[in-house]
């Protein structure tokens, strides 16, 4: 539908054009202005129909990747999570056949993000049967990350695992209340949560660093960890026996926190450190890009809190502040793992996807090829119909004009 301001402009321009052409004295200026107003009306109407011709989707800003790009990258056709690492290494996705490698200036390793098969997903050829794994479990996804540190994190730096948003999002009073419920729910499930809605750039001084919105948990929020001494074979993240390895938090939180605290003080370069996380997954339906299971609240669109995808999954340490700074500012962070994530059902803008994947997506988005062709086709049909009507109207105006002059 047309927005009210646009409707007003179209109506005003149309009425003015009619008045100019019908009641003017026939001077060249009036005819020029009249036809200019007709052209404005036509441009606005055409723009409106082009908007109406856009492909319908659950999210208005979804980028539908061209089929050629999907084939080129061997992207799964069923709903899945898409991941872009920092530094960029291309585009990854959930439920892969093997774990993905990553490396940055501080560490290297592997990671695996997986969930129950989605509709249309073929039987997994991976070592791990994703369907069988999640049977009887309340978690709806799991993340496993493995690190080999090139330099050990300093003992005086706290390590945090969590998420970051890309932009500050102003929240309504109702949204703040719901967010408060979400924070309370996560704290009750895991504990030790640091949450910041971020700094409003409009309220900051020029040049002052802003904190981005984020949820951060202490290292012991991971649900499982495994330490493999240097020289020994590290665990396969796809191993069906992975669950029985190392130390787990469930049912022994106090002891587990102590074990993780000792681990944090003794992290060194050489051994392999493997972590698994699923504790709050039951609240984050990332495939459908919504929060679920929050008391007194139904499923909630994640965009209400993060603005738009992607969301960044991060592991970082925090430099102690000499000025008593408590915020988790970017300048204080050193990232060991940083991955932009989004659902294939709700992607970032195409330009942002290309930047995050370092140009791995070479083809144009579907909305710039087949989708645009569909829009052009529908718009051109309306153009033909309305163009004929416009010509007919102009012909009628001209006939009336000639008739009035003869009279």
Task: Give a description of the structure.
It is a single chain. A seven-stranded antiparallel β-sheet has the order 2-1-16-15-6-8-7, with no helix packed on it. It has a six-stranded antiparallel β-sheet with strand order 3-4-5-11-9-10, with helices on one face. A three-stranded antiparallel β-sheet has the order 12-13-14. The chain is an alpha+beta fold. The chain is globular. The chain has helices at residues 4-23, 28-52, 67-73, 130-133, 173-189, 253-265, 303-306, 350-356, 370-406; strands spanning 81-85, 92-93, 100-103, 107-114, 142-149, 158-165, 194-196, 214-218, 224-228, 247-248, 272-277, 284-285, 290-291, 300-301, 311-318, 333-343. Strand 12 (284-285) and strand 13 (290-291) form a beta hairpin.
Spatially, the strands of the biggest sheet line up as 2-1-16-15-6-8-7
Low-pLDDT windows of residues = 1-11, 45-62, 366-407
- The ordered H/E elements are HHHEEEEHEEHEEEEHEEEEHEEHH
Count of distinct strands: 16
Radius of gyration, CA atoms, in whole angstroms: 29 Å
User: Hey, roughly how much beta strand do the residues contain?
Assistant: 15-25%
**How many individual helices?**
9
């Amino acid at each position: 539908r047309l927005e009210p301001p646009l409707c007003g402009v179209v109506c005003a321009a149309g009425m003015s054009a009619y008045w100019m052409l019908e009641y003017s004295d026939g001077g060249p200026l009036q005819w020029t202005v009249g036809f200019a107003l007709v052209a404005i009306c036509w441009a606005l109407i055409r723009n409106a129909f082009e908007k109406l011709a856009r492909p319908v989707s659950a999210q208005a800003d979804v980028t539908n990747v061209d089929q050629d790009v999907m084939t080129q990258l061997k992207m799964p056709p069923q709903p899945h999570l898409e991941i872009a690492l920092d530094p960029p290494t291309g585009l990854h996705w959930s439920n892969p056949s093997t774990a993905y490698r990553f490396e940055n200036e501080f560490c290297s390793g592997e990671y695996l993000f997986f969930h129950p098969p989605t509709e249309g997903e073929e039987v997994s050829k991976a070592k791990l049967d994703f369907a069988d794994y999640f049977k009887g479990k309340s978690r709806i996804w799991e993340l496993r990350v493995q690190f080999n540190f090139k330099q050990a994190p300093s003992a005086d730096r706290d390590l945090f695992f969590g998420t970051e948003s890309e932009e500050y999002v102003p929240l309504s009073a109702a949204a703040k209340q719901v967010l408060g419920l979400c924070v309370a729910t996560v704290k009750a499930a895991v504990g030790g949560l640091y949450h910041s809605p971020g700094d409003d750039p409009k309220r900051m001084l020029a040049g002052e660093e802003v904190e981005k919105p984020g949820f951060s948990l202490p290292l012991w929020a991971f649900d499982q960890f495994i330490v493999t001494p240097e020289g020994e074979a590290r665990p396969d993240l796809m191993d069906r026996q992975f669950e029985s390895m190392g130390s787990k938090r469930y049912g022994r939180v106090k002891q587990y926190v102590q074990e993780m605290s000792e681990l944090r003080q003794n992290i060194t370069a050489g051994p392999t450190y493997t972590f698994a996380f699923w504790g709050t997954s039951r609240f984050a339906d990332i495939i459908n890009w919504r929060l679920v299971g929050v008391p007194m609240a139904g499923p909630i669109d994640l965009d209400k809190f993060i603005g738009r995808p992607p969301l960044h999954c991060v592991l970082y340490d925090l430099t102690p502040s000499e000025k008593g700074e408590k915020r988790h500012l970017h300048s204080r962070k050193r990232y060991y793992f940083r991955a932009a994530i989004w659902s294939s059902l709700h992607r970032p803008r195409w330009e942002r996807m290309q930047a995050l994947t370092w140009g791995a997506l070479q083809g144009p988005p579907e909305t710039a090829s087949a989708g645009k062709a569909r829009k052009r086709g529908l718009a051109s049909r309306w153009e033909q119909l309305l163009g004929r009507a416009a010509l007919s109207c102009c012909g009628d105006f001209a006939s009336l004009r000639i008739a009035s002059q003869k009279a």
